[in-house]
Write a structure and sequence with these properties.
four-stranded mixed β-sheet
């Protein structure tokens, strides 16, 4: 049987969670940068960031077997590669008739690839690992503040609410006063979570999991699934933004209950494609807030 790629990815994320590691809260993004393909120079996107970042290598460079060979190198004997995927959509037309846009059917595809880290490859001179400079708390918060201020078409942000939330009806983010947070980093990490929710608004990315979200107390399996997926998008979106600000997410504690909640969600029926789809949507959310165009690997 052909292996189910969605299931492979989800199982790997669940294994990480069960070992006490939250793949989307790795400090290595801030320390060594986002993982990237050494041949093309382009950064990996979406779920690949978490699949590769959670390996905690000390440099961001990866290559496929063929790319390593083309550059005059080879994979060291006994080394095992790491899974990455390419996720996207394509349009299928009926073969019997001329292509008509209205009759086109949009389908998703997912392809698996294997890549190897620089430390697993011989015969190629990679840049020496160069950890990014450690930022002071002031520098981190300045970066975070700049990210928030530069968000295009931003929602209104209000302090003084009892709990942090995004309200789609008023297109507004509501936060507790900063003094209720243990640190400025925790404040901005939470704010990034809510801003990630806001990117799903109809005036921005019109994300289905936000537009159809009825809240945590909504009745019915479908409503609960929509809520869970949107929360996963916001969690991952905040992770991307934290990394850009230099915030080390390992410093923001994760309780056993937090870990178990995501394990339960990802093990639930029909959830095997969520992690890939949510990571893709989270990347789009972060890119929207940062006002950048994504680098897409060929």
């Amino acid at each position: 049987m052909k292996p189910d790629i969605y299931e492979q990815v989800t199982d790997r994320i669940i294994t990480q969670l069960e070992s006490g590691v939250v793949p989307w809260k790795s400090p290595y993004f801030s320390k060594v940068g986002f993982p990237r393909n050494f041949s093309t120079g382009r950064a990996y996107q979406g779920i690949n960031v978490f699949l590769l970042g959670s390996l905690r290598f000390t440099s961001p460079h990866f290559l496929t077997f063929i790319q390593a060979k083309e550059l005059g190198g080879h994979i060291r004997k006994g080394e095992h590669g790491s899974l990455v995927v390419k996720y996207g959509t394509y349009t299928k037309h009926e073969d019997q008739a001329p292509a008509i846009e209205d009759e086109a059917e949009t389908r998703r595809f997912l392809r698996a690839y294997t890549v190897f880290h620089a430390s697993q490859i011989e015969g190629i001179e990679f840049p020496q690992p160069d950890n990014l400079p450690e930022l002071s708390i002031t520098q981190k918060t300045d970066r975070a503040r700049e990210i928030v201020a530069a968000m295009p078409n931003a929602p209104a942000i209000h302090d003084g609410n009892a709990i942090p939330c995004y309200r789609p009806k008023t297109d507004s983010v509501h936060m507790p006063e900063r003094g209720f947070f243990g640190s400025e980093e925790a404040y901005y990490s939470t704010l990034f979570h809510e801003l990630s929710h806001s990117t799903g608004h109809a005036s921005r990315l019109a994300r289905k999991s936000l537009l159809e979200n009825k809240g945590i107390d909504a009745a019915g399996d479908t409503a609960r699934k929509v809520y869970a997926e949107e929360e996963l998008v916001a969690e991952m979106g905040a992770s991307f933004l934290n990394a850009h600000a230099g915030i080390m997410e390992d410093e923001i504690s994760n309780s056993a209950a937090y870990l178990q909640s995501w394990i339960d969600v990802l093990k639930s029926k029909d959830a095997k494609s969520w992690i890939v789809r949510a990571a893709s949507q989270a990347q789009k959310a972060a890119n929207y807030i940062l006002n950048i165009q994504p680098e897409v690997l060929p």
